[in-house]
Amino acid sequence: MSNDWWRTATIYQIYPRSFQDTNADGVGDLNGVRYRLDYLVWLGIDAIWLSPFYPSPMHDFGYDVANYCDVDPLFGSLDDFDALVSAAHAKSLKIIIDFVPNHTSNEHPWFLASSSGRDNPLRDWYLWRDAQPDGGPPNNWFSHFGGSAWSWDERTQQYYLHSFLPEQPDLNWRNPQVRAAMYDVLRFWLRRGVDGFRVDVISHIVKDAAFRDNPANPNFAGEGPDIARLAQTYSSDQPEVHDVIAEIRRVVDEFPDRVLIGEIYLPIERLVAYYGKELGGVHLPFNFQLLDARWDAATIANIIEMYEAALPPGAWPNWVLSNHDRPRIAARVGAAQARLATMLLLTLHGTPTLYYGDEIGIGHVDIALERAQDPWGMREPDLGVGRDPSRTPMQWDASAFAGFSTREPWLPLTPDFATRNVATMREDDMCILRLTSKLLHYRHAHSALGIGSQRLLHASDHVLAYERLQGADQILVALNFCHDTRSFSLPNGLSGAVALSTHSGRSGERVPAKLELRGDEGIVIKIG
Ligand code: NOJ
């Protein structure tokens, strides 16, 4: 068993705009993250993943990068970044940053050059194509944010491809100069001490060389976002992408102990291909199956089994419950089941990624139309796809603006922030914050949870149970997915005591052969 740090680590995703504001502009910043490091140590996470903080016109809140090697003044400076890395490392926390290779901002100097004339040396750095004879776009591809993926450039009389906003032109990763320039970007940050990258839409970076039309999506139900109308047969997940990823990995491997994580929304069989030949791809292709899983014991058990069975030899699993693009877990399954979900996430086999704010149980936040920010939500307004409700500020205390800022934040707080905040909840032994922290520290203390094997024991009548085992360390987790009492029988001959429960008054209790779980209850049992 390799001792790579990222196998036993818990990753905590920070959306920098929404974590902590230190310069009173209503938007979070890097110094804010540094200010809150002691909290993260108390919580018990191991690595921070920062969503983009690069100079950007912010059409997609930083996922439109205008300079890969600097910090947007909104978030601070390179000095602030260096100070954050040193302070985090001094507290044994790792820093993973977001790398956005598929597209730049249309204000990036590369695109300004590329769009300045057809004979510009950087013309081929982006994906330019002629119009169809009728003047229409080169093919039928849709942007992920609605409408055609092609925009017309008046000046040079060609279309350019943008898989997301028109302000996010796609780079041409088949061009070796683009690859070389991007590898230098990686080295720039690796030399600054980052511990790894989360790579944005990594499966999209190579497109079909002939730009063929995508076929209709046979599963499209007649309504939904434009992007769902077609199968992404030629615009994503091309066979050639794996060679490019292997190159990226070799760059990262020039530096010891770094991790490469890929953002990939694909079915399991195609997802696991991203571990790469001889595992020379990304270390962790994000496993997003819990993001939209039907929330019941049998479905989750099935996902766990299928996923584990699909992992190639040597591949390390990982799990995600929420992120800045998807509804928060508490919004999806409710407050009681969110506690259970946290227990699931932090006891499963594989590296967990915890989304900031989930530890205080932030649920759905209504965003009034006039406060909406997300470009996707605004481009397809009738679909409810807006991502603002998952990006609201972290709530630290009961003061005005929840200790996030001294002025009105860029997105609203939850209506119950006076009680749903870190300072208040740290005092309450039974709240989800303390549960999360206890689980994280228990995970550190028990190698069975960190690196142990996993065996499913039971998945019926709303109860999911599994065992984690490492040497003499044996732990059993039983989760009740319904609101009523359920019972669960321990496997023959096993006995133990409750180490942690989502509910009160149970810690230390000896577990009888037939165990009663209260509605929505999850428990961690130490066998022995
Ligand atoms: C995925 C990111 O997570 C999302 O927030 C962004 O809008 C798109 N990629 C485009 O970069």
Automatic annotation (TrEMBL):
CDD domains for this protein: AmyAc_OligoGlu_like
Keywords of this entry: Glycosidase, Hydrolase
Any one biological process term the GO annotation gives: oligosaccharide catabolic process
SMART domains cross-referenced by the UniProt entry: Aamy
SUPFAM superfamilies attached to this UniProt entry: (Trans)glycosidases, Glycosyl hydrolase domain
Domain (Glycosyl hydrolase family 13 catalytic) ranges: 13-391
MF term (GO), any: alpha-amylase activity
Source organism, top-level taxon: Bacteria
Keyword Hydrolase in annotation: yes
Family note: Belongs to the glycosyl hydrolase 13 family.
PANTHER family on file: ALPHA-AMYLASE FAMILY MEMBER (PTHR10357), NEUTRAL AND BASIC AMINO ACID TRANSPORT PROTEIN RBAT (PTHR10357:SF179)
Name the UniProt record assigns to this protein: Alpha-amylase
Provenance organism: Methylocystis rosea
